[in-house]
Amino acid sequence: SLKWTHGDPDYLPPEIDTSRPSIARVYDAFLGGKDNFAVDRAVAMEGMKHFPDNGEGARQNRAMLFRGVKFMAEQGVDQFLDIGSGLPTMDNTHSVAQRVNPDARVVYVDNDPIVLAHARAILQTNGNTRVITADMREPEKIFNHPEVEGFLDFSRPIGLLLVAVVHHLGDDEDPEGLVKTYKERLAPGSYMQLTHFCSCAPEVRALEAVLLTMLGTGRARDMPEITGFFDGLEPVEPGVVHVPEWRPERPVEYPLGLGGICIAGGVARKP
Ligand code: SAM
Known about the structure:
The protein is about 35% helix and about 15% strand. By secondary structure, it is of the alpha/beta class. It has a single domain (about 25-270), classed as Rossmann fold. The site of S-adenosylmethionine has 20 residues, from α1 and α3.
């Protein structure tokens, strides 16, 4: 499944460091994917030891990501900026959006070079999809990136995805101010989908401790803080909720398991 290998299964691009865990690969390990290394699996296994959700939180988050993208595409949004997009897996933002509108454009942004390395295969076959390596903490570099400028039209509605990425920013990195910068750049009628690791249950703190120790990042924030990221936007029903509760396709089973409570988020529209 290593898509950059071009036939050589042992080849690794020099920018990929397999001696330290990476967020994208640890998330892939939680999802049960194959694009991760022993250091990454060690973090996921330790996490699941303290938070035995068997990867359900990651899967529920990913499922909500796709329900949100489908919703936005059905509202007529035909361009998406997916920041902290992660490794391509079984389904992806562009496939979901392009099932609704084959002409929908998607830019994937991630600061982990492994994402671009894997996504090259997508680039070759999909003219409406681009992938860049950039950091969400440098919004102007993203807006002015040659692959973004002229490809996304910021004078028209955009679907901005900040899904399971803002919790990788520390409090000292002004996550609220950064999200505000992105919201300000959006044209009226745009949408923002944001999900975030949530301290809604005490057990989450155990997983947070593992992530902070072994990965150096992954902060749970509480519901008012997560809701605050949407300030200035009109929430789409049902607002900011645990991800399984966001416009579910099947009835939600209560009580929500650990995987159901550890991530919260929503979708909101810029008036
Ligand atoms: N958005 C996908 C999803 O929800 O299924 C992937 C979420 S994954 C938990 C977080 C991703 O954000 C990782 O791929 C990681 O490399 C990326 N990331 C973390 N910090 C980032 C930053 N400062 N700028 C860009 N990407 C970042």
